[in-house]
Amino acid sequence: SISAGNPGDLLFLQGPAGARALLAELSERAELYRAALKNAAGENGNGARLRRLQRGLKTLEQMLESVKKGKQIDEAEIPPPVALGKGEGAPGPPP
């Protein structure tokens, strides 16, 4: 079982099902980062945000490769979900 108190327990790879779930989460988050980058690229004054998004996307892509190779990653290191901004792809508020 996983204990939140032990940093070694943060490593996530609990068999094939866990790996698939983690791959799906990382892939989905990477797509959100790509969409946010696309939206932010068209706006002025977003230099810092663009760099942050690029760093997050790079981290996600490295994590995806590691998981595909069967390596363990630290879930605490996964970049947080990102807001898409004002782009057309941004979902509206829930009804």
UniProtKB/TrEMBL annotation:
Name of encoding gene? Cc2d1a_1
Q: Where are the annotated segments for Disordered?
A: 68-95
DM14 domain residues are 23-82
The protein depicted here goes by the name C2D1A protein
Give the lineage.
Eukaryota, Metazoa, Chordata, Craniata, Vertebrata
Q: Which Pfam families match?
A: CC2D1A-B_DM14
- Please tell me the species this chain comes from: Donacobius atricapilla
The GO terms this record gives for MF are: DNA-binding transcription repressor activity, RNA polymerase II-specific
Q: Which superkingdom is the protein from?
A: Eukaryota
Renumbered to this chain, the Gly residues biased-composition regions fall at 86-95
